[in-house]
Specification:
Shape: elongated
Radius of gyration: 48 Å
CATH class of the largest domain: Alpha Beta
Strand order of the largest sheet: 6-5-10-9-8-7
Oligomer: single chain
Length: 753
């Protein structure tokens, strides 16, 4: 153990205290005038201090020394203080009660690069360029006032010598007191933790990129999320540019790329304040004019670029260099966005003004961030490619435009068609100028939902051609969905059960009746000529393919001429209001114009999705249809031929004689069949559209069959003759009986001549 330079006290040969130091007074709590001349044992009684006695060199008596708990002698305290201020790497600052610096260690001066003369006597916030001076002063005063030490408080200050840099210090504070307990100042210890904090900032930037980028499957949103994650916490300006191939939805080019021909489209931009010439999103520029871009693509790693003595060197573009110089840009990092050997684009980061210069250590953080971002962008690109394919398939599966029908004008509104779109519609022409209107929605999304949609459209058209009523058609369509679901679960047991919703309406322009059945969605809206909107009150049945096997119900409604029928999926049905539709109806007459107007108003909001089918009814002219009741007698056939000839020849554009003769033969055969095998009343209806439709209805549910009569048979050739002179014929049932119909082509007298 080393001796101190001064003993605690000395004693003579008799053991009496000869001298008593200030250290002894503090250690034993007794002043010198109270112990001098007394016995040493009495002076130190009850202190518990371990003492060491050594002979006085060159004199009589003894010198007494003490050891602290660690074995150090008391005057070691002075040596320790001197070492802390002169040699320790831990910064030490002593403040008085006014927060002025009275002593600064060599390490504290070196940390800040200032001499003692520039620091001593100044208040803490005057001596140091603190980032938050008021907050840091308040914390120091609190330690001085309450005496509770504060440990490892993070304080930020800026350097005043050389380039302005942010420095981080871990600061601990202790109150200094006199022996009587009076506070006289404050001691602060400083530990430079700038490297640790900058590492945390880099890690935080990478964490923000990993958390914020990849939440969306939209390419442009991911680009903007990347820029937002890095500005302002890591850079002052961020620009994300994609290769023209990726921006256009194509496959990215393979490495190495020909930078002379490579085009970049600006996809996202973010700045914390200064302007930048690259803020024009969507603009295209070649890579060849940027050396930093070329180098990053060639080396496939982030590149650090610093300004030269004139403030340039970041770019070769004169306009861009001027803007960057005005923004006081000093360092830039350019990093390629690459994945699986393909180049997606580039990321450019710039720091300006008083921001700390980029360092080589930042390159690793940028590389980690761009690696994650590139994977997310490629996933979004692949999803966009799949959405484009699915959207194309979806459009191909839907009718291009509903064909014009007699007495009704149809159009559709399709909002946000994409791979997630599961809604579909159809307009199917039927016999007797009737048409079937359908809107449906399939569970799920993507190719499986689109394939199911195609199956349902095909099945619905086939069932509609069977002349089924809406409730029966939905029941059979539900069986189709159930079988499709069984096939799906047979190949993939974990696949969810398949269901679909559908609204099916059957409109007859001659009788102006509309029959509706619903599966899983509400009935269509009807807007009358007076503008009032209500619904066809059709009960909502279970979804197609659902376990619920409740029967479907059917509702009917007579539509006035000029009425508008709207069949919409649940998504779009909620946003259709009477006010919006009536305002458009006051301007537009046709269903297509109305659909275009609705699309223009609703498409501005991305929340509006779905499909709606619009149908406007029109009054039939006398030249398009005629109806007669016939007697159930043998003369009914001749009466029907007479009525048919008179009506066809009396039209504004008379039918040719050949067409009249064919129509007479067709009417005669159908009416004769109804008189012989049917049940009164018998009705004849003629409809003149693209073809001439002849319909004969009676109340018997028994339908005839086409058969080939033998040469010796006297009858049985009626329907065979009908099939030969028409291009389409059939039978449909109703609650009142059956109707046999046939369609034949026709020409006018002008066309015949």
């Amino acid at each position: 153990m080393g001796r101190t330079r001064e003993p605690l006290f000395t004693v003579d040969e008799a053991g009496r205290v000869m001298s008593w130091s200030d250290g002894a007074a503090r250690l034993f709590g007794r002043p010198a005038d109270g112990v001098l001349g007394r016995g040493a044992a009495e002076a130190v009684a009850g202190s518990g201090v371990s003492l060491r006695v050594v002979p006085r060199p060159g004199a009589e008596g003894w010198e007494v020394y003490a050891y602290d708990a660690d074995g150090a002698e008391p005057d070691m305290e002075g040596a320790l203080v001197r070492a802390l201020f002169a040699e320790s790497q831990l910064g030490l600052i002593v403040l008085d009660r006014e927060m002025r610096l009275v002593r600064v260690s060599a390490a504290a001066r070196a940390m800040y690069g200032r001499s003692p003369d520039e620091l001593l006597g100044k208040r803490l916030d005057e001596a140091y360029a603190l980032e938050h001076p008021e907050r840091d002063l308040a914390a120091a005063r609190e330690v001085l006032e309450n005496g509770t030490p504060e440990f490892s408080r993070l304080v930020t200050a800026f350097t005043t010598v050389g380039p302005r840099r942010r420095q981080y210090y871990s600061v601990s504070g202790f109150r200094l007191c006199r022996p009587q307990g009076e506070p006289i100042g404050l001691a602060l210890t400083l530990l430079d933790v700038s490297r640790r904090e900058r590492g945390r900032e880099r890690a935080a930037a990478v964490a923000r990129v990993r958390e914020g980028v990849g939440r969306s499957l939209q390419v442009m949103e991911n680009c903007q999320d990347l820029a937002d994650a890095l500005v302002p916490g890591f850079a002052d300006i961020a620009l994300v540019a994609l290769t023209e191939q990726v921006a256009g939805g194509d496959y990215p080019p393979l490495r190495p790329v020909d930078t002379e021909k490579l085009l970049l489209r600006r996809a996202a931009f973010r700045t914390s304040g200064p302007a930048d010439p690259d803020d024009g999103i969507g603009e295209v520029s070649p890579v060849g004019e940027e050396p930093a871009f070329n180098r990053a693509l060639r080396e496939q790693r982030p590149v650090l670029v610093q300004t030269d003595a004139d403030g340039g060197g970041l770019t070769d573009s004169p306009s861009r260099a001027t803007a960057l110089r005005q923004a006081r840009a000093h360092t830039m990092i350019v990093a390629p966005l690459t994945v699986r050997g393909r180049v997606l684009g580039l990321l450019r980061l710039v720091r300006c003004g008083d921001s700390e210069h980029f360092a080589k250590a930042d390159l690793r953080a940028v590389e980690d961030a761009t690696t994650h971002a590139a994977l997310c962008l490629d996933n979004a690109r692949r999803a966009a490619h799949d959405r484009a394919l699915a959207s194309t398939v979806h459009r191909k599966l839907l009718p291009k435009r509903p064909s014009p029908q007699l007495g009704i004008d149809t159009a559709y509104v399709a909002l946000s068609p994409s791979s997630e779109s599961r809604t579909w519609f159809d307009v199917t022409p039927l016999s007797g100028a009737r048409c079937a209107l359908a809107v449906g929605e399939v569970d799920g999304a993507g190719p499986h939902a689109l394939a199911t949609m195609g199956h349902l459209r095909t099945a619905l058209r086939a069932l509609a051609d069977l002349e089924l009523q809406p409730d029966e058609l939905l029941a059979r369509l539900g069986d189709v969905v159930t079988r499709l679901s069984e096939d799906r679960t047979g190949t993939n047991p974990n696949a969810p059960a398949l269901t679909a919703s559908c609204t099916f309406a059957l409109y007859d322009p001659v009788t102006k009746t509309c029959l509706v059945a619903c599966a899983g969605q509400r009935g269509p809206r009807v807007i009358g000529p007076d503008g009032r909107m209500d619904r066809i009150d059709a009960p909502v049945g279970p979804r197609l393919g659902a376990p619920d096997t409740s029967p479907f119900a059917m509702a009917g409604r007579t539509l006035e001429s000029g009425s508008t029928l709207i069949l919409a999926g649940d998504e779009l049905d909620e946003v259709l209001s009477t006010e919006v539709v009536n305002r458009l109806l006051a301007v537009y007459d046709s269903a297509q114009d109305l659909a275009d107007g609705l699309f223009t108003r609703l498409a501005v909001s991305p929340r509006h999705t779905g499909t709606a089918l619009l149908a406007r009814t029109h009054q039939l002219s006398p030249d398009t249809t005629a109806v007669w009741d016939l007697p159930a007698e043998d003369r009914a056939a001749s009466e029907a031929r007479r009525l048919t000839r008179r009506w066809l020849t009396g039209l504004a554009h008379p039918v040719s004689e050949d067409s009249v003769d064919s129509a007479g033969l067709l009417v005669s055969e159908l009416v004769t069949n109804a008189v012989r095998y049917g049940t009164p009343p018998i009705t004849l209806r003629l409809i003149l559209d693209q073809s001439l439709t002849v319909e004969v209805a009676d109340s018997s549910p028994v339908t005839p069959d086409l058969r080939h009569a033998r040469v010796t048979d006297e009858g049985g050739r009626g329907l065979f003759i009908v099939s030969q002179i028409t291009h389409k014929w059939g039978t449909r049932r109703s609650s009142a009986g059956k109707t046999i119909w046939a369609e034949q082509p026709w020409t006018t007298t002008a066309e015949e001549s």
